[in-house]
Write a structure and sequence with these properties.
single chain, 259 residues, alpha/beta, Rossmann fold, 28% strand
């Protein structure tokens, strides 16, 4: 079985983000730390667990991003993946998810994969579009927000459980080749082993430059980026517990929220 895992590099949540008025996008402070998207870490761990249970399985990592994104590919190899492809972008700005999916779909490794795993969404944009769009580009069945994966005994299908609205879960069976987007909480991603990290650092990754690929027409563009507007003032209650309770009752009564 051949598994492809799509990963993304994102800034740490504590990174200082500012708005670049020139590019109409955000910029991250120079001292910021970047890491693998946590949803993608769970996807890598899912792939490694499948590999451990099904000998002969290979895992190939695919990442689109600037030069520094190479680090997350090597970390995924350190976790147990076998090889990786880096699709290098010239900038770190917004890229339409349909274009990302189009770039990924051109990879020969993706086209030959039995199973493609993506994170349910990225921590920076929180859109969750790349996985389903990639499945559409490849005309493959897709299940999103997956919380359990079971490869069937025939090695030709996979049964999954996925989260749906209202707190319910849905069981779905898909024939290979298929694509799954993995939800956090499905597993606990492992730390890369030293031997695998040393192997990853020596490995030559396959590199593609997206500027040399054919043009894709974006389906969405960014018109403006602004900080969240402050719509209301906060009120801090001070004093003893009794005084705070009295103040809260007065506020709720004044707004006709209690009689």
């Amino acid at each position: 079985m051949k598994i492809i895992v799509c990963v993304k590099q994102v800034p740490e949540t504590e990174a200082v983000i500012t708005i670049d008025q020139t590019s109409q996008w955000v910029s991250v402070g120079g001292a910021a730390v970047f890491r693998m998207n946590r949803f993608d870490e769970c996807a890598v761990e899912t792939a490694v667990q499948i590999k451990e249970n099904f000998p002969g399985t290979t895992i190939h990592i695919l990442c689109v991003g600037p030069d520094r994104s190479e680090e997350v590919i090597r970390r995924a190899i350190g976790m147990g993946a076998d090889s990786g492809t880096h699709m290098v972008t010239s900038s770190d700005g917004f890229v339409d998810p349909s274009i990302l999916a189009g770039w990924m779909a051109t990879s020969s490794e993706v086209c030959d994969a039995d199973l493609i795993l993506c994170g349910a969404m990225s921590e920076d944009l929180m859109q969750g579009q790349v996985g389903p769009l990639l499945a559409e580009c490849l005309s493959r069945p897709c299940a999103t927000a997956v919380i359990q994966v079971e490869i069937m005994a025939d090695d030709k299908s996979v049964q999954v459980k996925r989260e749906i609205e209202g707190g319910y879960r849905e069981a779905v069976a898909l024939q290979f080749p298929a694509l799954l987007t993995i939800q956090t909480g499905i597993n606990q991603p492992r730390y890369p082993s030293l031997s695998n990290l040393l192997r990853a650092n020596r490995m030559t990754l396959k590199t593609l430059h997206v500027d040399e690929m054919g043009a894709f027409h974006p389906l969405q563009t960014v018109k403006q980026v602004t900080p969240p507007r402050k719509l209301r003032e906060s009120v801090f209650l001070e004093g003893s517990s009794e005084q705070k309770a009295e103040q809260l009752i007065n506020i709720l009564s004044h707004r006709s929220l209690i009689a």
